[in-house]
Amino acid sequence: MPNDTQNDSFSVAGRNFTSRLLVGTGKYKDMQETREAIDASGAEIVTIAVRRTNIGQDQDQPNILTVLPPDEYTYLPNTAGCYDAKTAIRTCRLARELLDGHNLVKLEVLGDEKTLFPDVVQTLESAEVLIKDGFDVMVYTNDDPIMAKRLEELGCVAVMPLAAPIGSGLGVRNRLNIRTIVENAKVPILVDAGVGTASDAAVAMELGCDGVLMNTAIAAAQNPVLMASAMNKAIQAGREAYLAGRMPAKRFASASSPMDGLFF
Questions:
Q1: Catalytic amino acids?
Q2: 241-244: long-range contacts at Cβ-Cβ below 8 A with a sequence spacing of 24 or more?
């Protein structure tokens, strides 16, 4: 492990990134706030909900790509709002057409509108089709180590287990499962969904995740730009803590100044 994060990076689909914070572009009050928050986050990868955001589908509406130019950011079109494989596949193909052959996508196929939990059967089905169609698939899934491994073996370039339900802000609810997914993986693991504040992001990184993707935690904060800055720092702190290797947890006290060797 490196001793610091100065030259620390992670790779997705053959592309290297120094920022381990990935951010969404929805729920902000306007385009200006979107840009300011994303700048403060330090993110290099921005995810865009193709079914909810104009990336060229409507020539008469503001285009998010003019606010977040392609020479400054790596786009991650996502299939938010899709509840079956057919719709998710069509959405990814639309994004590729609008973005001049862009193949990196975030796949999410939801099971129901109340929980927004993933439908893993539909996710597997659509992932298989998209991978065969030449897409580099970063996939949203539940925190099941078996499913995470299956998606990796299918050919997904990154697996993105939820920390908690989308938009809930509950933080990492099952640390043991996330740790197990990380330990078993040969592709990047990024926590996606459920982060509420900076400490949640730090926890995800301390568990060994390669990164964290978030939107609501920043956009729904009272001061989104300041929260984006906080998340930036939390990701770095959590990564450094993971690399440093935390002390073993103990049930009882251990004196900071031991009695052994005292001069008396």
A1: 106
A2: 241/202, 241/205, 241/206, 242/205, 242/206, 242/207, 242/208, 243/1, 243/2, 243/3, 243/4, 243/5, 243/8
